[in-house]
Structure formats: C-alpha cells, structure tokens
Amino acid sequence: MKDDFFVFDNAIHMYKLTEDNVDFQHGGIERTNALVEYAKKFSGPGYPYDDITGRELAVEDAYRLMFEESDTDIAMAQTVPSHGGWKLGFSPAENNWKLKEAYPDRVLFCGGVDPITHGHYGAVNEAIRQIKEWGAVSFKFYQAHSGGVHWQIDDRQVAYPLWEACLENGVNNVQFHKGLAFNTQHIKDLAPYDLERAAQDFPEMNFIVHHLGEPFINETINIAARYENIHLALTAWINQYPVAPRAALHAIGKCLLHVGPDRLLWGSEAFVWPKVQAYIDLFAGMEMPEDLQDGYGYPPLTDEVKRKIFGENFARLMGIDIEVKLKELYGNGKKKGKKAAKKAARHGK
Amino acid sequence: MASERKRLAKRVDQALEGKVRQLVEAHGGGITVDVDNEGDAHITFHGRCAACPSAPVTMGSLVRPTLLKIEGVRSVSRDSTVSPYAEARILKMFGLDERECS
C-alpha cells in the first residue's frame, strides 16, 4: 500500500538476456542495446536504469525489488513474446510463470504467444496450454517483428481464433505493445487502428493498450475514448516523467479528459527501471498544474483518480476483491502486516 | 418522504426522455440520474459520453436547464472529467449559478 492506495502493477517483466536466449544471427545484440539505450534515455538521478545485458532476473530478486523495496501489493508478470533477436523473447513465458509459481499470492501470470513465431494454430494451442497448465489470466502481444513482419488484431484468420480461444478458456483480457518500435520494426505496424473492429466484434473482451501507442498518442486516446472495452496502461509514461514532465502530464491529462479515470492502469515496467518505489512516490505526489487545467481542460489528479489508476481499475478487470486480497496479504493490520509478510518472506515462509 | 422522492425521481427521469436521451444516445452514450431527498440531482453519463470533453457543454446547455425547470430540483451535478476552470467557463457561458451546479 502506498498511503491508502492499493498498488497493482500491471506490467513487470522477468527478463532473460543471457547468451542462450540471444539470437546472435538476427540482431539479438542490437535489440538488447536498443532496449538498454531506451531505458538509459529515460533515466536520471533517483530514477536509474539497469543495464540488464547478459543477465537473467531471479525470482528472489524480483520479489525483493517489487515487494520489499516498494509499496507494490500485487503485480502481473508479463511475458514479452517479441522474438526477433531473442530465441524465447525478451521476457520468456516460463520466467514469468516461475515468478507466479514462487509467489502466487502476489503475482499473476500474463502469458504470451505470437502467431508469426508459433504459427496460426500453434499460437492458439500454446495459449490454451499456458492457460490450463500455467494459469495464465491474460496475454501480452507484440505484433511487429523486425523488417516489417507483423500481424493485425482485427485479422479474422490470424487473430480472431486467439480471442475466441481466450474467451472460451476464461481469459477476458488481452494486452498489446503499441508504438515504441525497436530496432527495424516498422512504426506503422504498431499503430492502434486495428483495435476498433476487434473491440466492436468482441465486446466481452477487454483490450489493454500499452505506452499510449507513442507516437500515435492522440489516435490511441481517441479510439479508447469510444470503446468501453479498451483500457490504457500508462506504462513507460510514468518512466518518462522525470525526463519530460510536461509531456507526461499532457499525456495523462488527455487520457483523463477523454477516456476518464476508470480505464487507466498503473504499470512500472520493472525491471529495466529497478527503483519501482521512486515511480510510486512520483505518481502519488503528482499534481496537474493549474495552467494545464485551465488551458487544456485536464481534470485535477485527485486521490480518487490516483486510487483508481494505482490499483482499483485493474483489480476490477481481473476480478480481484481488494479488501479480501489485503486481508490475505497483511491480515487486519495492513502496514504492520506487510512488515511481517516481508519478514516471513525473508525466512522463506 | 420516500414516495415523494420516488415521484420526483420519476419526473426527473421522464424529463430526460425525448430530446436529451436522443441526443446522448446518438453519440453512442447514455444518461441516468439520481435525486436525493433535498432535490439534488446527480447525473451519470455512460458509454462514449462518460468522459467526453463536451459533456460539460451538454450539461450546461441542455441537461441542467431541462432539469432545473422541474419543481423540487434544487441542483444538477455530475462527477466531472474536465478541469474546474473549464466547468466555470461553461457555467458562465450559459449564465448558470455555480451553486445550482455544485
């Protein structure tokens, strides 16, 4: 808990950049470097990046960074099925599943498949396997691969079988990396325009869009504003704030003005930026400047708004009762309970 | 008291029928209203109107004037998704008293 905010981190990634996962023939080194350079660009004093080149994050370290060194209550470990350059992706499904297995009370598992890597039928079968065997409650997708290879969310042959399989197996939310092209991915392949038809055709599915589709920010917000089953994860934006605070405030302000506070999600993007608590403190103390409220109509960043973004919205989407979860984690005394939980975790209980 | 409130709530809801609901629904949205014992009406926009930047204009030019004509309605409000500055400008545009719209 941060003050009385329940913190549910939508996006943490168990990275694996060790040699056995790097595809040296297909730009693995370059992609790793590009990712680290992006993290470096949006870092600064108090908000450091971590050069994760050549490393694989252990579940114990992930637990320490998320739940001992930050006020995060629960988190979703997201697979990154972006394979060009990495054999199993930047953040393989197995690594994220292992974190959930180690700390099932704290971590939810977001699986990942890709119709290009796995093939049309293979992706559906692997998604079902990750749901049934590994307990996936969500899926993350990266549609653009190096050199302009990509697929579309509204492709009836390639993508719709995935959405149907998810719904048939109890998963009613899917997530998408939009914008922020790396390496030789084409930015047009990461535009948000393919969300509309899918959101119309699958009203019972929730489509979560990451990074506001930068640079398609206005388009992403416009589309999300018109479909109640589209949600926006503020991932990467909170990380950009220390470098470009006014740009981040404009982005968050536009989201609040056009989409409202009920469909915005908190995500830290751990662990390329490992000081998760710094970002939690930053958002908890963030205010919408009066000149932006006056000149752009952005609403104030009230505690009610922050409470929704920090955790209430994603908990509602995932069917988690916050009061029940808090009692499960901390008993009746929340902060005292958290200290006890930390102590118990340190002793392997 | 409860039946009086029920009757007021019915009158208020009926007042939204026709032009107001037609316009809101034409934009892919919806509108509901709750009225308390003091006659304070609270509006909720749904669907595409829930966080529309033009919702304050719809409130100021159509919803508030419509509901304030009903006997027993003291104020009309909604949880805003625009800044207080924008709300104040819109109230001024339509010559509305801030107290009626708190």
UniProtKB/TrEMBL annotation, chain A:
<protein>
    <submittedName>
        <fullName>Amidohydrolase</fullName>
    </submittedName>
</protein>
<dbReference type="InterPro" id="IPR006680">
    <property type="entry name" value="Amidohydro-rel"/>
</dbReference>
<dbReference type="Pfam" id="PF04909">
    <property type="entry name" value="Amidohydro_2"/>
</dbReference>
<dbReference type="InterPro" id="IPR032466">
    <property type="entry name" value="Metal_Hydrolase"/>
</dbReference>
<feature type="domain" description="Amidohydrolase-related">
    <location>
        <begin position="66"/>
        <end position="319"/>
    </location>
</feature>
From TrEMBL, chain B:
<dbReference type="InterPro" id="IPR034904">
    <property type="entry name" value="FSCA_dom_sf"/>
</dbReference>
<comment type="function">
    <text>May be involved in the formation or repair of [Fe-S] clusters present in iron-sulfur proteins.</text>
</comment>
<dbReference type="InterPro" id="IPR001075">
    <property type="entry name" value="NIF_FeS_clus_asmbl_NifU_C"/>
</dbReference>
<dbReference type="Pfam" id="PF01106">
    <property type="entry name" value="NifU"/>
</dbReference>
<protein>
    <submittedName>
        <fullName>NifU family protein</fullName>
    </submittedName>
</protein>
<feature type="domain" description="NIF system FeS cluster assembly NifU C-terminal">
    <location>
        <begin position="12"/>
        <end position="68"/>
    </location>
</feature>
